[in-house]
Amino acid sequence: MEQQGKRAADRYVEIGEPPFKKTNAFSLLSGSQIPNDTVNLVVMGDSGVANDEQKQVSDMIANYHQQYPVDVIIHTGDIIYPDGLSSPDDTLGYSHFEDYYLRPELMKADSQPVPIYAVLGNHDHYGDADAMIEFSKQHSQVLQLPSRYYKVNTKHAGINGVETEIFFLDSYPMTKNRTRYEQIAWLDQQLNASTAERKIIVTHHPLRVYGYYHDNAYLKDTIEVLAEQYGVCVCLAGHDHQLQIQTGSNGITYLVSGAGGAALRSSGVGSDSIFSAAQHGAIAIQISSSHIRYIPLIEFNSEYPDYEYYRQ
């Protein structure tokens, strides 16, 4: 049963048990070694409001990047509030996105910015979704949004580490009974053909979540079924303005990262909760062939101690 609004910090003794293990993150973030085949991701979402909280989250990601160089940032949608972009030249693309993430502290060793691969959120659809795609192609040095749904293979993208394939979907039309079957057929085909050791699916709307929103039945009946069939390890989403990690009995980890700047909503916990926080931030994921670490990037305090979680 969902415990609406109850903080996961109240349940630290109960949650985080096998198949997850929980350790204090301080030693990890102070310079401990990570496996050589690690792909380092940061997941954020629901960010484009141009406020102090968005800058705070950008700073958190930048600080983490200085300790553990990030290969890719994944944005779970709602890139620009309140109504996306009106055209590829809309200045909101800069004031509400580019200005926060194109910064020296988020450059890679080759002096290129850490790329942000994104999905469209409902607020991006309230404007011209194609304009957001064209903004990424014509103007942005950071945003990677080649189409409404697509995949990224880390090996093909020149990223060293365990081969990881990430499938980015446009879930908003699915919630409105539009272009459902085309995307699902594409996902089925791509997952079936994938030989990557690790597979990740990204949607804006969560398949599973405890919070302001609830599980999405259609996404579970379609995307989750394929995720189970083809051995997907993680399903990422945003939309609910909080941070959350939960584990399913099907072996999939469900992560919600929708606290990139927009006003927070209540978080909740359930029997399969690992972490839940109604707090601005992001979640880092260190993926290797041996295990996956999940590291909340938040302002730690007595209510939200600094923990990291890993799954073997």
Automatic annotation (TrEMBL):
- One Pfam family, please name it: Metallophos
Do you know which InterPro entries this protein is assigned to?
Calcineurin-like_PHP, Metallo-depent_PP-like, Metallophosphoesterase_PAP
Q: Which Gene3D superfamilies match?
A: 3.60.21.10
Q: Which residues form the signal peptide?
A: none
Print the keywords alphabetically. Hydrolase, Signal
Q: Which residues form the Calcineurin-like phosphoesterase domain?
A: 41-242
Q: Which GO terms describe its molecular function?
A: hydrolase activity
Which PANTHER family does its entry note?
TARTRATE-RESISTANT ACID PHOSPHATASE TYPE 5 (PTHR10161:SF14)
Q: What is this protein called?
A: Acid phosphatase
Instruction: Specify the species.
Output: Vibrio brasiliensis LMG 20546
